[in-house]
Write a structure and sequence with these properties.
The chain has 1 helix and no strands. The chain has one helix at residues 2-131. The termini are far apart.
Amino acid sequence: MTSTSASSEPATRADLEALRLEFREDMAAHRAESREDMAAHRAEFREDTLAIRQDISRLAEEMNARWTESREEMNARWAESREDMKALRSDFHEDTGELRGDMRVWVAASIGLSSAILVGTIGAIVTVAFVG
């Protein structure tokens, strides 16, 4: 039995050594494959990150362009509104001036009419007093 166990013992060591060597080779292959996978993932991640950054830059440029366009449009509208208000004020002042002139004419006419009525009334009273 000792000869059998002695003869089987070196085979077991050789098997263990072969298994250990195979395990090392498998682990080395697995590590190499993992490194390749990680390198591929990192490259893909970098590409995705670059694409996202480019999209963000493009969106920021579009937003800035829209903001500038909107600001220019609002400035034009404000300028137009200011011009409209200036024209309205000018028209209002002209109309007010015309109305004041008309009111002066009406006041003068009213004073003249009142004076004529007063003179006529006084004349009638005097006539009635002397004639009557």
